[in-house]
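Trying the structure run again after the queue cleared.
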Amino acid sequence: MKSAVAVLSLLAWGAPLLAQSLPFHRPLNPLSATRSALAHQPYESYAPARRAFTVLFEYGNAIEYEIPTTAPTRYLLDAEFMRASVSWRRELAPHAFLSLRGEIGGSYAGFADGFFVWYHDLINFDQPERAARPSNVFATELDLPDGRHIARQPTKLTLGDVEATVGFRHSLTQQTAVTVTLPTATTGHFGRGVPGAAVVHTLRVPLRPTMTFEGSIGAGLTPKHGDLADYQRALFVSGATGLRWRLWGGESIYGYFFYHSPRYRGTTFPSLDRRELTGDFGWISRRRDGSEWRVGFSEDLAPGDAGIDLILKVGRSW
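Done. Tokens:
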């Protein structure tokens, strides 16, 4: 342990020269995000100042319209979601840290349907669900197999759940993070309603002086709760894999895939009952003091699964 502490202490002086981690990622769709505490937890390099902050703004567009032929059910999700989060990290020792994350969020009819249609046309991605819906009109409705009809209204602004994470650096390449979520949300469908927990192990390996591989695997538990409890799963797994490539100076690009196991079962809706596979890619500008600006997109890679269609993310860390 003493040798590990010594090596990690040296990281405080060499961090600006090392390849850095991928950005944090957690699903944005409330029906997904409120079922699990799992996320891609990047490797957190030791911070010489002993404290670090990250601010992240996310805005996404979702459209799902499913009418299964095997049951008299229906699922309609047409909305734009916003989430702004702030995380604070304190070093407990060269090999351990504590972080707290709080957030606010909202759901809206939106204004950006036209932009998202243009973007999907640009990449030649067909969305018949979007073409069948009027622009910038909110709808969240479920007709469930048990005969219940659930409809949700737009939410201008609400507090989300608070997350506390304790991380343990085993070496310069491996880290384990234990996260507990607390049910602090002020609106039911933006929070889990019960405490949750997750464990994520992260591996970060410099492949070249300018390129880093990072991957993570995780397992989580969130008890069933709320009006969809009969269809919820309680145990989950996740995985992520990707690269960060420094082009010049402090300028880098990144890309990775995030996988999450199914969160629901028996709803008859693929976009709830299936696993999620999301791609995250973007640009990172790192300054000499170690602070970063991040701009990225998350894209649902498997239509009909639990991922949200497109998310714009802007973050700042220091």
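The CA atoms of residues 36 and 222 lie 6 Å apart. Worth checking whether this holds up in the mutant runs.
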